[in-house]
Amino acid sequence: MDPELEQLFVKQLKENQNIIHKICRLYTSGEDAHKDLFQEITIQLWKAFPKFRGDSKFSTWAYRVALNTAITLYRKSTRSVQTSSFDTTNHFIKQEEYNYEEEEQIKLMYDAVYQLNDIEKALVFMYLEDKDYQEISETLGISEVNARVKMNRIKTKLKKILNP
């Protein structure tokens, strides 16, 4: 890959790695699985980056790739994540430490979100990231109206889970 393109990728990944951590948090339980999924998403982003045309923001594109990777791996196995080999000697992307000591309210919310299906999890995640419905619909490949309807149904579902 072109060195300029590689530098751009590293810069964009550093600026947007919290997105990936949050997706990993939604689809894994435990630090090892989180790290494995983070690595696999990074690999998939790296492989797909030469095809990134810039039609959308990097963060929107990264959401799509990360969610698709997480959902695909989650469906294959809820216990372990299979990863591809990655030559770390050529690509030094420092992974920020992720704080696993969450407040009790956040833990309860994550427990509730774990009970949702894959698409519902992705929609909640993006909604909590203050993404507008246009960006949510583009990322998930659904209409804006469908995203709004699904989000209202998810809110009702989460209320029932959190307040039985």
From TrEMBL:
GO molecular function ontology, one term from the record: sigma factor activity
Entry protein name: RNA polymerase sigma-70 factor, ECF subfamily
Signal peptide feature range: none
Coiled coil: none
InterPro entries: RNA_pol_sigma-70-like (IPR039425), RNA_pol_sigma-70_dom (IPR014284), RNA_pol_sigma70_r2 (IPR007627), RNA_pol_sigma70_r4_t2 (IPR013249), RNA_pol_sigma_r2 (IPR013325), RNA_pol_sigma_r3/r4-like (IPR013324), WH-like_DNA-bd_sf (IPR036388)
Family: Belongs to the sigma-70 factor family. ECF subfamily.
All copies of domain RNA polymerase sigma-70 region, residue ranges: 14-79
Keywords from the UniProt entry: Sigma factor, Transcription, Transcription regulation
GO biological process, one term: DNA-templated transcription initiation
All copies of domain RNA polymerase sigma factor 70 region 4 type, residue ranges: 110-158
Pfam families for this protein: Sigma70_r2, Sigma70_r4_2
PANTHER family (UniProt xref): RNA POLYMERASE ECF-TYPE SIGMA FACTO, RNA POLYMERASE ECF-TYPE SIGMA FACTOR
